[in-house]
Write a structure and sequence with these properties.
By secondary structure, the chain is α/β, with parallel strands linked by helices. Helix content is about 40%, strand content about 15%. It contains 13 helices and 14 strands. The strands form 4 sheets. A 7-stranded mixed beta sheet has the order 2-10-9-8-5-3-4, with helices on both faces. It has a 3-stranded antiparallel beta sheet with strand order 11-12-14.
């Protein structure tokens, strides 16, 4: 008998849970796209995005997913034959690097594996050895491995090497989940999307460009009409912001999501994500005392606050996910390849829990309870006390 007859819960790492306030904001007739309230609302959205990114620089908005934001960022900065350094900690920096390769760049990969963060000392050595590197690509949070990279330390390594390369950071999974300071950390280009920490249905990609990136645009030779960020960053008329018709209902939803973040306070949003992530980590560690369960990222300082990748050893992760979904109504994240950007292939012995966006303790405890219920139903060995450990982690004072 299936128990999955209540409201289905999506615990995968994006798209994240869409708040009722966002859904209600989107549930309206199409507006005038040439004048009136939509223009003022969009101005508020642009200000809100800059606040979340902690930057004074504007964002170009694209009707696209994160892969579109990758291409937009690169097409505005790449010259044919330029050397690009990819700092790989899982799947997604490699995917971004493949986009650069297809745009004519020469890609150099510094691979840190699928279970560890970028080592800034290795970055410094690589840049000293190859001063021709023009771009450095890195993700803050890789949703395949669930690693969190130290962007400030990477910037410091680049400076120590005397590198003139642009630092380009993918915050698709981390924006409004992890602490991020574009200007303070010296990030030249940041890309993001709306469907994770920004709690809006998929469909919008963002590229934030600092002054060095804007200067690179003048030298780039892969810019096309749609991806060109100049009309979006300095629009002559409203429709230039979007390369055509505005994504009206996504703007309504995103505006409401940004209002919710502002009401909670950005630092409080970051702290909530850290606390909920700690609960997930504590549960996995408890299960692992009498079973093969383990966090993919062993170093606590390198674990993401947005997503957790869990290793199941020789136990069947697909069976666990299937039980959680079909018998309990909880969708867990599929395991993505930690090293193959060109395929949707999965790796055995992994699953992921997304803890990003519109979440609170009952929601996280429900997911963890569903996972443990699946373990019990499938007779998978696991240690006791996981939910108690999660509750204690959420109750702990960060200070």
């Amino acid at each position: 008998m299936s128990l999955a007859h209540g409201r289905h819960f999506l615990a995968s790492p994006g798209p994240s849970v869409v708040p009722e306030r966002v859904l209600r904001a989107m549930h309206r007739d199409a507006p005038n796209i040439y004048e009136g309230p939509l223009i003022e609302l969009t101005e508020h959205v642009l200000v809100g995005l800059k606040t979340v990114a902690q930057t004074k620089h504007d964002a170009a908005i694209y009707i696209a997913n994160g892969h579109g934001a990758w291409e937009a960022a690169l097409s505005n900065t790449i010259r044919s034959g330029e050397r690009v350094l990819c700092l790989a900690t899982g799947r997604f920096a490699l995917g971004w690097a493949e986009t650069a390769r297809r745009l004519g760049a020469e890609v150099v990969v510094e691979d840190f594996g699928g279970a560890a963060a970028v080592d800034p000392e290795r970055v410094e050595r690589a840049l000293r050895a190859d001063p021709s590197i023009a771009k450095v690509l890195v993700v803050q949070t890789d949703t395949a491995s669930s690693v969190r990279n130290d962007i400030a330390a990477i910037r410091a390594a680049m400076d120590a090497a005397g590198s003139e390369a642009l630092l380009m950071v993918d915050c698709i999974a981390s924006l409004a989940c992890e602490e991020f300071h574009m200007d303070r950390w010296g990030v030249d280009v940041m890309v993001a999307a709306c469907q994770k920490g920004l709690m809006t249905p998929p469909g919008l990609g963002f590229v934030f460009a600092g002054p060095r990136a804007r200067a690179a645009r003048a030298r780039a030779d892969r810019v096309t009409a749609y991806w060109d960020w100049e009309p979006r960053l300095e629009p002559g008329v409203f429709y230039h912001l979007f390369g055509g018709t505005a994504p009206t209902h996504h703007l309504f939803g995103l505006h409401e999501a940004l209002e919710m973040i502002a009401e909670e306070g950005l630092e409080a949003v970051w702290a909530r994500h850290r606390r909920l992530a700690a609960a997930v980590h504590a549960s996995v560690e408890a299960w692992g005392t009498a079973g093969p369960w383990a966090l993919n990222i062993a170093d606590p300082a390198s674990r993401s606050a947005a997503v957790t990748t869990i290793r199941t050893g020789d136990l069947d992760a697909d069976a666990l996910r299937a039980h959680a979904e079909h018998e309990q109504g909880v969708t867990l994240g599929v395991p993505l390849s930690l090293s193959r950007p060109d395929t949707v292939g999965r790796e055995a012995g992994l699953f992921r829990i997304g803890h990003m966006g519109h979440l609170n303790p009952p929601m996280i405890l429900g997911v963890l309870g569903a996972v443990e219920t699946a373990m019990c139903a499938l007779r998978m060995p696991h240690g006791p006390g996981a939910l108690e450990a999660a509750a204690a982690a959420m109750a702990a004072d960060e200070g």
